[in-house]
Each structure stands twice: as C-alpha cells, then as structure tokens.
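For reference, the entry.
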Amino acid sequence: MLDLDLIELKLKASSWREVIEKLGCNMKSKGYVLESYVDAVISREEKLPTGLPIDDFSVAIPHTDPGHVNESAIAIATLEEPVEFNMMIDPEQKTKVQLVFLLAVKNPNAQVTLLKTLMSVFQNKELLINIQNAESKQEIKKLLDCLAV
C-alpha cells in the first residue's frame, strides 16, 4: 500500500541529490527509514546510478540496503522540471528524469519482486505519462495499485 504522505506532485529540485533528500526526509519523518538512509541512498546512487530512459521518458529508482530501513515503503515524485540522473545502463551518460521512485525495502527477497513489478510499470509508457500528469496523490495511488511493499 502506498502512503499518500510519500507522494510529491510537481516537486521542485535542482539535482538528483535534492530529490533523494526531500523524499528521504519524508520517509524518515514517518519512521519508515533510519537516520542513515538518505546518505546511504546518495552514496549508492553515486556508485550505481539508477536513471532509466524509456524512449523519451526517464525514471529513476534510487534505493539502498535493507539495513537502513525500518519498514518497507515507496516515495514517489513527479518533478516540476526534469532532473539529471546518471544512467543505470551506462553510468557515464546522463538522462533527464521526470519520475522518481525512492525505494525502502526491509526484506531483500521482496526487493527483487518489487523491481520486477516496477519494470512492468516502466514498460507502459502511457501509464508513466498518466502518473507524471496526475493532479492528485490519490490519482497516482490508484494508477499504481499494482505496487506492494
């Protein structure tokens, strides 16, 4: 179940770090993650970037080890303006990301299942555009009913 408090519409951010910090602070304030979570996600993103271009639309799925997580959750941001993330497939290249799914997964086995589910979401470009254009958090939640954490 998605927590509406972890969904940000038209988030203003100037960098991928700022996106992770804002979403991670929301998770921290709700008790989903430990104090160490945001720094751990940033550190991992620097080494193993998660920007994923899908045709002319890009998403990012930053995450870190379960040791920084109290309870599984997903924070989602539609971005007011795209933010550059390094690409997962070619870390030397950048992609302008419009949607960010910040993952906090407590059970390592569940992470594989969640990533598979997200990949099926990412293969549906119409769904991604509908999420990006959503006018409410409830609309995003309804569009992503398939996600379970």
